[in-house]
Specification:
Largest sheet: 4 strands, antiparallel
Number of helices: 2
Distance between the termini: 43 Å
Helix content: 10-25%
Number of strands: 7
Strand order of the largest sheet: 1-2-7-6
Radius of gyration: 21 Å
Order of helices and strands: HHEEEEEEE
Length: 144
């Protein structure tokens, strides 16, 4: 227990060098963690609801979008949600425009054991049901 060290935020580069030097195959996980390409915008607004230990819901408010204008897909461990809005509203003159209906692209990084189970779009609310894949040897088994 004499090799224990205390690290502060100023020691992060040294810590990362030590971890990378003593691990194999972990670089992908650290790249995911430190190189997140998250958008800086809060549009569209969303909720992430934890239903239980193995299931969660991602609820995205898409007021003014039609189902045909929304695309949901996964690729390389990320969940992408895109909305393509046509520019037909430029001819209209707004007295007040409170509903933002602009095109967008959002991405969320998924863990290796998370899968998209269901996608529904109803009344301007996109609901993506996410679930954890629990290996059979870790799943609960009742014997009596």
């Amino acid at each position: 227990m004499t090799n224990l060290m205390r690290y502060t935020t100023s020691d992060i580069p040294a810590l990362m060098e030590r971890i990378n030097k003593n691990s194999i195959g972990m670089d992908e996980y650290f790249d995911r963690l430190f190189n997140l390409h998250e958008t800086t915008t809060n549009y569209p607004p969303y909720n992430l609801v934890q239903v239980n230990n193995v299931e969660s819901l991602l609820e995205i408010a898409l007021a003014g979008f039609k189902k045909e204008e929304v695309n949901v897909f996964t690729e390389y461990g990320k969940l992408f949600v895109e909305g393509q809005k046509s520019d037909s509203e430029t001819e209209r003159t707004f007295v007040h425009k409170g509903v933002a209906s602009r095109s967008f692209k959002r991405a969320w990084t998924l863990s290796d054991d998370t899968e998209v189970r269901e996608v529904t779009f109803e009344d301007g609310l996109l609901v993506i049901r996410l679930g954890k894949v629990v290996p059979e040897h870790h799943a609960r088994k009742d014997y009596l």
